[in-house]
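Key result, reporting period 2: structure in, sequence out.
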C-alpha cells in the first residue's frame, strides 16, 4: 500500500457517521462523571469512525479479516468493547495503577460488565508478550503518558509481526492552541507534546516506518447537539486535511509499520 492509498482509506473512514450506541451508554453509571465522554454522541461518533478506519486499513493492508490486535493501555475499555462488537480478535492490557484512567483503578464498568479480560502490565515499558504476537498495536491516548516513549516503541516493534501496524491516536500536538492554553493555565495533563519531526525521529530510532500522519481536532465539538456536531466534525476534518489551520489542531496522529524480514 502506498501513502496515497493510506490517506484515501483514512479520509473515507473519517467521513462516516455512526448511530449512538445505547447499549454502551446503558452500561455506564450516570453518577460517574469520568464516563461522560462515552455518553456524548460527539465522542462516540469520533471513536467509532476511528475504529472503522483501523479495521478497514488493517484488513486491506494484510488482505485478510483475521487480525490480532493489542489495545495497549486500554483504560476504561471502550475501544476493546467496540472492536469486539466488530468481531476483531483484540487483546486488552493496562498498567496496574490505581488511578481512574487505568483498567485496574476504580471499578471499571465496561470491562466488568462485558467480561473483557485485561492483561496486567507491571513494568513501565516491557510487555508480557512473545515476539511477533500481534499484527496491530493501538495507542488511543497512551504513548504521551508512558515514562519512556522510545523504549515503549521498541517493545511495540518487538511484539509486532513483520509488516505489522502501529496506530497512534490522540497524540498531543506541540503547536496546538488548546494544549498550549492548558499549559499557560498551569494544567499539565500532557507533560510531553509532539511535533512531526519528533515522531519521525522516534519511529526511526525504534525501527518503525511512518506511513501516514495527520492533524485532527481543531474546532470545539463536545457541547454541540446532534445532528450539528456531525456537520462541524466534517468541517473540522476538512480543515485538518487541507488548511494551514491544521497546525493549530489538538492532536497529531499517525500509522507506522514494521519492516518485513
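The corresponding designed sequence is given below.
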Amino acid at each position: 500500500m502506498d501513502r496515497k492509498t493510506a490517506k484515501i482509506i483514512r479520509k473515507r473512514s473519517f467521513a462516516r457517521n455512526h448511530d449512538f450506541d445505547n447499549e454502551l451508554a446503558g452500561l455506564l453509571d450516570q453518577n460517574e462523571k469520568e464516563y461522560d465522554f462515552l455518553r456524548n454522541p460527539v465522542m462516540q461518533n469520533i471513536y467509532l469512525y476511528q475504529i472503522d478506519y483501523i479495521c478497514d486499513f488493517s484488513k486491506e493492508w494484510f488482505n485478510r479479516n483475521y487480525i490480532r490486535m493489542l489495545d495497549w493501555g486500554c483504560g476504561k475499555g471502550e475501544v476493546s468493547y467496540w472492536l469486539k462488537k466488530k468481531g476483531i480478535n483484540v487483546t486488552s492490557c493496562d498498567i496496574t495503577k490505581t488511578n481512574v484512567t487505568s483498567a485496574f483503578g476504580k471499578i471499571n464498568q465496561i470491562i466488568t460488565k462485558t467480561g473483557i479480560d485485561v492483561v496486567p502490565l507491571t513494568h513501565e515499558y516491557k510487555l508480557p508478550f512473545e515476539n511477533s504476537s500481534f499484527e496491530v498495536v493501538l495507542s488511543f491516548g497512551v504513548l504521551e503518558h508512558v515514562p519512556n516513549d522510545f523504549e515503549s516503541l521498541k517493545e511495540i516493534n518487538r511484539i509486532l509481526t513483520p509488516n505489522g501496524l502501529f496506530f497512534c491516536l490522540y497524540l498531543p500536538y506541540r503547536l496546538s492552541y488548546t494544549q498550549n492554553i492548558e499549559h499557560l493555565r498551569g494544567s499539565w495533563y500532557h507533560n510531553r507534546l509532539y511535533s512531526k519531526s519528533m515522531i519521525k525521529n522516534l519511529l526511526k530510532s525504534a525501527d518503525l516506518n511512518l506511513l501516514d500522519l495527520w492533524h485532527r481536532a481543531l474546532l470545539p465539538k463536545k457541547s454541540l447537539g446532534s445532528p450539528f456536531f456531525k456537520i462541524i466534525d466534517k468541517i473540522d476534518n476538512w480543515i485538518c486535511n487541507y488548511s494551514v489551520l491544521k497546525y493549530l489542531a489538538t492532536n497529531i496522529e499517525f500509522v507506522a509499520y514494521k519492516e518485513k524480514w
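Residues 3-258 form a domain with the Rossmann fold fold (CATH 3.40.50.150). The first strand starts at residue 68 and ends at 72. This case is discussed further under Risks and Mitigation.
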